[in-house]
Amino acid sequence: MNQPMIRISVAPRFIAEQSNPEVGKYFFSYTITLVNADTQSCQLISRRWLITDGEGNEQKVMGEGVVGKQPIITAGESFTYTSGVLLDSPVGTMEGSYQMVDQENSAFEVIIEPFLLAFPGAIN
Q: Would you say residue 1 lies in a domain?
């Protein structure tokens, strides 16, 4: 059986209220939508993130599920969540993957392509 088709979209956003640029703290939220464009259900089991700030410092994050959930995404449905990250620089990137299982309990990985986190005006 082929790996289920999961489409990922990401919407990052700078959160001024939780940031303090004067001391080098920049908070970003990111909203991710996973769309199950397949004919079978699947479940998100865990996540891996590589977060890189503008100085090249890397932070790796791994854990079960997302925002405390291991959602089952039925065929044709989607799951959206919002989380956040604090950077020590005005610009950074995130990339990673979700570890998932299909309805036969076969494991597969969904890649999250790198996306930009940028303080408004930091990049021209």
A: no
Give pTM, 2 decimals.
0.92
- When computed from its CA atoms, the radius of gyration of the chain, rounded to whole angstroms, is 16
Q: What is the predicted pLDDT for the residue at 112?
A: 97
Residue 93: Cβ-neighbour burial (10 angstroms; 0-12, 13-18, 19+): middle
Residues 100-111 pLDDT 10s: 999 999 999 999
123 found inside a domain: no
Question: Looking at the 3D structure of the chain, how many domains does it have?
Answer: 1
Q: Is the dihedral of CA 37, 41, 42, 43 positive or negative?
A: positive
CB 49 within 8 A of CB 60: yes
pLDDT one-digit tens code per residue, 52-69: 999 999 999 999 999 999
User: In terms of C-beta density within 10 A (0-12 exposed, 13-18 middle, 19 or more buried), how is residue 67 classed?
Assistant: exposed
Tell me, what CATH number does 35's domain have?
A: 2.60.40.1470
